[in-house]
Amino acid sequence: MRDIISISQFTLEEILEILEAAQKVMPYAENQIHPKDLEFSNLAKVTLFFAEPSTRTLGSYKEAAEIYGFRTQEISGQEATSLMKKESFADTIRTLASQGANILVIRSKYEGAAQFAVEILYQGGWAVSVHNAGDGAHQHPTQALLNLLALKSRLGRISGFTLGLIGDLKYSRTIHSDLEVLRLLTRQYGNIKIRAVSTPETKLDSYLKEGLEIEEGDFLELLSDCDVVMVTRIQEERFLDPQELQRVRGRFVINREVLENILRPNVIIMHPLPRNYEIAPEISSDPRIFAWEQMKFGVPLRMILLRESYCHRKDKPIIFEEKMATPQIIIEEPAEERLKRNKEKGKHERYFRPIRDNGMIIDHLPLGMGDTIKRLIKQHGGLKKKNGCIHTLEGVKRLSSDALKDVIVLEGHFIPEKLYAPIAFLAPKVTFNLIQDGQFKKIKVKVTGSSISGIFKCPNSFCISNNDPEAISRFYLYDEGFAICGFCHRRFNHKELLSN
Ligand code: NCD
Fold first, then answer.
1. pTM of the full predicted structure?
2. Nearest CA-CA partner of 114 in 76, 140, 144, 96
3. Is residue 288 within 8 Å of residue 259, measured between CB atoms?
4. Which residues contact 281 (CB under 8 A, 6 or more apart)?
5. Phi and psi for 333 in degrees, rounded to 5?
6. Does 348 contact ligand 1 (Cβ within 6 A)?
7. DSSP annotation string for 39-85
8. Whose CA is nearest to atom 8 of ligand 1?
9. Does residue 455 contact residue 462 with C-beta atoms inside 8 Å?
10. pLDDT tens, 286-339?
11. If I label 69, which of 33, 94, 470, 478 is the partner at 20 to 30 A Cα–Cα?
């Protein structure tokens, strides 16, 4: 384990090993003593770069590092850095590495920032591990791990419970990481029920619910059978629309009345903190509020993660790699035969005529998609602006049906294979028909499993790819018609990607 970027990098087994190790160092954390046999060279350095506010995560990282004898460098608050002088995130990361970081703990408002830092450091030849201490509304993996450790210690088990989530389920990165942990637990043990309470504006994006048994609603009564309730504050800083914020602010409050009349008498109430109004001050000292104890688990957990990362900082990191879709040749025959048959049947003649010896027909594009694909080929497929060899034929009546389509004919030009996947993603029925060296080939493409970079812009304005000139946008593509951003991991359909 070199970098800690997202819960999705772990197996459940690895998580349970981390929790066990954290439990073992708990006494060192509680008594603030160095585990003598585990101390690192006093030149080992943890850099804490927090460009968003933090009390717990920053403080517990510092404490964890110092208990192990690491030196720490702390840079906190965006205003305190040259980011305010328009220095890029990437250059900031390079600077901290050159000042000797062995582990770089990063908190940023940009989603995907930690993964991007891993790649910048690797390309620069720095053996620095990266920890994601929260990247925008995306992930906060170490918080989710400490939540599980806390839950395990209080509840005594990690399955067979009903768990409530309440608050900002849309923007809360802690919830997003918690859900990934819950997904792993559900896959292994099965008996976990989730109740998700939020306003419509702050409800979970549907892809986050996959693999989980979740009942959703906008009323507190849904939490009445929960063993554990995880509360989060409304992430005010992430709202772009002040009126929307106004509608959700103060909607749900756990107070004495809720505690007495709705929740189970022995409910465990967790909160990653900071709290605003969602847990009323009147119940701060109620023993069911577990948030105060919960945060204690941050130090031992981060001790273990720092130790692991320090030992593995020279390993090769996991970095994004572009993966082309595999073309499947469905017909291959001498071009002459194909052309002859087409002529006899009076079929496709007008498409094939211009490319008799050399060229490509991109067929079965949805009606109206021709222009978009043509633009894509011009931008990324080496087609000269004025070479004029593309014909977009809109509304051609197919012989077999009335369906209409666009067709692009490229005279003497072939698109690079890296464009097969994005075109097939936008036009799932597409076929690529090539005439080359006397051979005809019809190619179809399976999109799932492929990934692309630099073709589509991420629609999420907080994605690092929209906030650092070196972070080139990237997507994993799926035949089901959605793409997942390789930085912020949000899902988008064709329309959303093209509207950018
Ligand atoms: C959370 C965070 O920063 O995401 N706090 C934390 O790390 N303990 C929760 C929040 O800010 O609401």
1. 0.93
2. 140
3. yes
4. none
5. -160, 165
6. no
7. PPPTT-EEEEEESS--SHHHHHHHHHHHHTT-EEEEEE-GGGSGGGG
8. 272
9. no
10. 999 999 999 999 999 999 999 999 999 999 999 999 999 989 999 999 988 888
11. 94
